Predict the 3D structure of the following.
Amino acid sequence: MKVNVNESRCKECGLCIAHCPKEAIYLRSEVNSKGYRTVVVREDKCIGCGMCYLTCPDGVYQILA
Ligand code: SF4
Ligand code: SF4
Protein backbone atom coordinates (compact mmCIF):
# COMPACT_ATOMS: atom_id res chain seq x y z
CA MET A 1 0.00 0.00 0.00
CA LYS A 2 1.56 3.29 -1.12
CA VAL A 3 -1.39 5.60 -0.60
CA ASN A 4 -4.18 5.71 1.93
CA VAL A 5 -7.65 6.84 0.83
CA ASN A 6 -10.11 8.62 3.12
CA GLU A 7 -13.23 7.78 1.16
CA SER A 8 -15.55 9.89 3.30
CA ARG A 9 -13.91 13.05 1.89
CA CYS A 10 -14.22 12.19 -1.79
CA LYS A 11 -16.56 14.30 -3.96
CA GLU A 12 -16.20 12.30 -7.16
CA CYS A 13 -14.67 15.24 -9.06
CA GLY A 14 -12.29 13.02 -11.04
CA LEU A 15 -9.22 15.29 -10.82
CA CYS A 16 -7.00 12.61 -9.35
CA ILE A 17 -8.08 10.10 -11.98
CA ALA A 18 -7.18 12.56 -14.73
CA HIS A 19 -3.72 13.19 -13.28
CA CYS A 20 -2.59 9.73 -12.22
CA PRO A 21 0.24 8.76 -14.61
CA LYS A 22 -0.40 5.04 -14.15
CA GLU A 23 -4.19 5.00 -14.52
CA ALA A 24 -4.28 3.39 -11.10
CA ILE A 25 -7.40 5.15 -9.80
CA TYR A 26 -11.00 4.33 -10.57
CA LEU A 27 -14.42 5.05 -9.10
CA ARG A 28 -16.32 2.36 -7.26
CA SER A 29 -20.08 2.07 -7.68
CA GLU A 30 -20.89 2.46 -3.98
CA VAL A 31 -21.43 5.96 -2.59
CA ASN A 32 -20.09 7.49 0.62
CA SER A 33 -22.07 9.26 3.34
CA LYS A 34 -22.27 12.40 1.15
CA GLY A 35 -23.76 10.48 -1.74
CA TYR A 36 -20.66 10.51 -3.96
CA ARG A 37 -18.98 7.56 -5.58
CA THR A 38 -15.48 7.22 -4.17
CA VAL A 39 -12.07 6.38 -5.55
CA VAL A 40 -10.16 3.15 -5.32
CA VAL A 41 -6.41 2.81 -5.95
CA ARG A 42 -5.13 -0.29 -7.68
CA GLU A 43 -2.10 -1.27 -5.65
CA ASP A 44 -0.62 -3.29 -8.51
CA LYS A 45 -0.43 -0.16 -10.69
CA CYS A 46 0.35 2.59 -8.16
CA ILE A 47 3.97 3.80 -8.03
CA GLY A 48 3.51 6.18 -5.09
CA CYS A 49 4.28 9.30 -7.16
CA GLY A 50 1.99 11.54 -5.09
CA MET A 51 0.11 13.19 -7.96
CA CYS A 52 -3.22 12.18 -6.47
CA TYR A 53 -2.22 13.70 -3.15
CA LEU A 54 -1.17 16.92 -4.90
CA THR A 55 -4.25 17.26 -7.10
CA CYS A 56 -7.08 16.27 -4.75
CA PRO A 57 -8.73 19.44 -3.38
CA ASP A 58 -10.39 17.54 -0.56
CA GLY A 59 -7.50 15.86 1.22
CA VAL A 60 -8.57 12.32 0.39
CA TYR A 61 -5.05 10.95 -0.09
CA GLN A 62 -2.26 10.28 2.32
CA ILE A 63 1.10 9.10 0.97
CA LEU A 64 2.54 6.28 3.03
CA ALA A 65 6.24 5.96 3.68
S1 SF4 B 1 0.46 7.84 -6.05
FE1 SF4 B 1 0.67 8.28 -8.27
S2 SF4 B 1 0.42 6.28 -9.25
FE2 SF4 B 1 -0.38 6.07 -7.18
S3 SF4 B 1 -2.58 6.45 -7.37
FE3 SF4 B 1 -1.59 8.40 -6.82
S4 SF4 B 1 -1.21 9.44 -8.78
FE4 SF4 B 1 -1.59 7.26 -9.23
S1 SF4 C 1 -9.58 14.48 -6.62
FE1 SF4 C 1 -10.19 13.92 -4.50
S2 SF4 C 1 -12.37 14.43 -4.38
FE2 SF4 C 1 -11.82 14.36 -6.55
S3 SF4 C 1 -12.31 12.24 -7.21
FE3 SF4 C 1 -10.16 12.30 -6.60
S4 SF4 C 1 -10.16 11.67 -4.43
FE4 SF4 C 1 -12.24 12.26 -4.94
Remarks:
- Residues 3 and 36 are 20 Å apart (CA to CA).
- The pocket of iron/sulfur cluster (ligand 1) is lined by residues 2-3, 20, 22, 24-25, 41, 46-52 (CB under 6 Å).
- The helical segments are 15-19, 51-55.
